[in-house]
Amino acid sequence: MKGSLRKFDTPLFFLYIAPWLIGFALFFLIPFGTSVFYAFTDARLPGSVDYNFVGLDNFIDMFNNPIFGKSLFNTFYFVVIGVPVVTTGMLLLAMLLNLNVKGIAVFRAFYYLPTLVPIVATVIIWKLVFNSEFGILNAVLSTFGMAKTDWLGGEHTIKPVIIILQVWISGSGVLIFLAALKNVPKHLYEAAHIDGAGRFRNFFHITLPMISPSILFVVIIQTMYNFQLFTEALLLSRGGPNYAAYTFVYNIYKSAFTDLRFNMAMTQSIFLFALISLITFVLMKLSNRFVYYESEK
Amino acid sequence: MKTNGKISLLALTMSIALVAAGCGSNNNSNSSNNSTPATNAGTENTAATPAKEAEPVTITYSQWGTAEELQRTQELLDKFMAANKNITVKMEGKDWGSYWDGLTANAAGGTLPDVFKTSFAFIEKYAELGIFKELDGPLKDVGFDLNNIDPSLLGLHKYKDKQVSLPIDANVIVWYYNKTLFSDPKTNPKGAKEPSLEPTWAEIEEIATKMTLDKNGKNPGEAGFNAKNIVQWGMSISPGSTIDWFLEPELWSNNAKLVNDDGSLALDTPEAKEVMDYFIDITKNKKINTTPAQIEGLGGQVGLAISTGKVAMNPGGNWNINNFKEAKTEYGTTYLPKFKETKTVVQPAGMAVSSSTKNEEAAYKLLAWLAGPEGQTELAKQGYSIPANKAAADAYIATAGEANKIFLDAQKFGIISPFTVKKTDLVWTYGEQSLKLPLAGDGDLEAALKDLASKMK
Fold it and tell me: Which interval of the chain is the signal sequence (chain B) (predicted)?
């Protein structure tokens, strides 16, 4: 009876998983394989029949292109500076929203609302906020006697603006942290209180370790998001000024749709895929040392 | 347990079958009611090749434009379909930016529309992808008279001496001013005169100085002028982000060039530097021109700045009159201001037939109609676009009026500067990033030019 069930379960398993498998093959495996193929050719359009294999030429071209270097630098800026800033911002907001004060549910709803607004609309709103001439921010700053700043047109200000925008739309991460904070057992704090622990000690020795799996999850998601940052760079300043917001994915888009070199875009995409995979792998490996899984203890 | 498993299996199989059937039925209904545009039309007509006169055929046509422009094109297509009962044309319209992304994606996916709009600036770049049909033979076959179209316009739609696209309009760049600002003493307290038909930059600078006002009504150069609180600007230009349609003709106006014959950057000559330094000076020092940040705050479009009511003059294309009419802006027009000679850019949009079309005969018919006397006269009668076909010139004047005759007259000042792949890269890929801020006086121009020249190599 048991044996026959297993026999029956195996095809059933594959049948149940078939929709996903088909989707995975159609929308990932085949396009990925095609991209790898064309990355080693001079075909400017996918589907071209008239092409030559060029070996590693596209990869060499990619590394020799100064714009590639700039876009990689900008992307690392967002990953190295943006991810910690945004994650910290999410955690601080979650801790605020975890307080037991009157009307906290309303605050939680308000902080989540920006996440529901489409990113294009959000970017347009922030363009108005940061506009140097007519923006609200400069208007407020000028009341304190501060000079107008060209936030969107400055090479040194555009990247921080994009990071601030990410904090604004960080509602999903805040929810994840909030759920994690709610799950920290109260008795741990009570025991720590009896032992004389203060707020900071509680935070660093109880809260942070207990929510560390959520932190890892958010950091990985944020890292991938920042490696693929595109919409904000495109809509806020079209990658400018002087390539200051030219992100890696924006460069891929320009290679394909402006330079009409899909082979180069595919080369860059493969490089990005390898980069994200490597960094995610490193993060996962490092997580063994920093992440506390209560269920495994 | 075993029974439950079988039931699950059956249920899943039925669900998949149902979904598959649903998809199938959708496809069927789409093809039968003929309501889907591009892709279905292409599939539907595969069997109809070659299209015969009497056999009904559906072709796709794609172009960029605003909602109003697309509506006007639909009116033209309706007239074409009325004259060619067996041909149905499905139009796909997009805005300028997404149009090119869409066309590229279509080329990549093998789903190009049968006939589509082209820009002279992208002919070489897209021709290299092999997306155009060569038109010389087919046009000869249908007896299309190319003599009615200016050779310079035809030349801009050739690739390797082969006609791959036919010009359909001859858009031209002129200088606009807001008549209301000039006539109102509140916005023109110094009584600046409207610019002359063929103004020099000295004249424009004088007018712009008078028309630039701070919040206390003072002009630049006056004692107490507050440059941080300008409420009205004399002009709005952004040479670094309008390289192809403003900076280049101005360079020519001063006997300079944008690119050399070998495709390298030509901005290192004294004449070119004189032009660039002048634009920096009027923006950074004289404060009579908007900065890029101010342009963003005014809506982000240099060509429409006068419609905000805060700018007296700006360069723009003939198509901008639609926007001014919609914004109820009373506008006046002159030729572009000159350094030494008046120059402008003629930007002919065109029509091309996809190299992969399965409906050649119908596609050529549509192309020949839109670019020929009949379609061009209908286009001219709408009064918005300047027809490229001379056979329709009278119809344009009759509709658009003498006031808009300047758009036809300005064409004699058009520079002959074809778009090569290198020039397209300069204008659309590298130029704006490098020059937008330096040409407004923000950043090191020399370093930007050096950087740009190296990228052009």
Answer: 1-20
